[in-house]
Amino acid sequence: MTTEFIGGAWMPSVARVFPRGIRLKVSEEKLEFRLRYGLDRFFGPWFLEHSKVKLVFREPRGLNTYHTIGILVSNDVWWSFYTYRPEEVLDCLEEFGYPIDPNARRNR
Fold first, then answer.
1. pTM for the full model?
2. Residues paired with residue 85 on neighbouring β-strands, in sequence order
């Protein structure tokens, strides 16, 4: 079973894609980042294995209209997912067993 979210992403050494340009597929085995609008035929997809995810946290919002969810992986590099529905994404990640920072639920 997988759940999908549309948003943007910052993937270190790969790309920065603004909101609505990425499809995030969440499953028990992995997180899959896939470009939208047909670009996935040329680039990606990119995967983060569940076992390599150390922590999922909420990044400071700043002046952006979207919220950012940080995903810290085992080599101490983090990926970011931009979304307008952060609570739904966090709930889904928690449901699939990803480690959620207890402070991620604070209003930002």
1. 0.85
2. none
